[in-house]
Amino acid sequence: MELVIRDLFAEDIDRGFLETLTALAEVRLRPREAVAVFQKRLRSGVLTYVALDGDRVVGTASLLVEQKFIHGGGAVGHVEDVAVHPDYQHRGIGTALVNHTLTQARQRGCYKVILNCFDSLIPFYLRMGFRHHDACLRIDL
Ligand SMILES: CC(C)(COP(=O)(O)OP(=O)(O)OC[C@H]1O[C@@H](n2cnc3c(N)ncnc32)[C@H](O)[C@@H]1OP(=O)(O)O)[C@@H](O)C(=O)NCCC(=O)NCCS
Fold it and tell me: Whose CA is nearest to atom 34 of ligand 1?
């Protein structure tokens, strides 16, 4: 399989993208609704990447670049929603997607990249060079 990683296009949404995301969580969007969400994300600067086997989406990861006042106005990358289709897991696709977001964050001038993950996935991220940093907290609104 020749893996290609690139930006998400609207046409990809119907080609395995939503199904791939359900590896992470319930999506509850019809393809047309997902296209509207995609356009909203584009307007707010959320970067969505996909891994493709031919024209089938088999993995995805997102990157948000946050412009800070502190650290001399530096930028921080936030990796979100990493998912690989169950039929394609354990073949290096998740690692390739996260490395792609790191390259993109570097090109956009980020001085660090942070993410939240399930405890069970900590070794997966440690292998890529991430280290433990602070705690993750949440409040439901
Ligand atoms: C986590 C995930 C993105 C990894 O993608 P992948 O393409 O399988 O990852 P890689 O092949 O690059 O690396 C595989 C390694 O990741 C780790 N890993 C993958 N899935 C794991 C899981 N569910 N629990 C613990 N470790 C896991 C293992 O160390 C695995 O090594 P192995 O193949 O030798 O068993 C994918 O399993 C997935 O989509 N899971 C469901 C959604 C999710 O949890 N997303 C992460 C949110 S932070």
Answer: 90
Q: b/e string for 60-75 if b means 16 or more Cβ within 10 A?
A: bbbbebeeeeeeeeee
Amino acid identity for residue 98 in this structure: V
Q: Is residue 91 in contact with ligand 1, taking CB distance under 6 Å? A: yes
Q: How far apart are CA 21 and CA 96, in angstroms?
A: 16
Q: Give me the pLDDT at residue 16, please.
A: 97
Residue the block writes with tokens 């969580």: 25
pTM above 0.85, yes or no: yes
CA distance 131 to 79: 14
Ligand 1 centroid, distance to 123 Cα (angstroms): 10
User: Is the separation of the CB atoms in 132 and 123 below 8 Å?
Assistant: no
| pLDDT digits 0-9 by tens, 93-128 | 999 999 999 999 999 999 999 999 999 999 999 999
Local structure of 66: helix, strand or coil: strand
Give Cα separations from 74 to 45, 66, 89 (angstroms): 17, 9, 34
Minimum CA distance residue for ligand 1 atom 27: 121
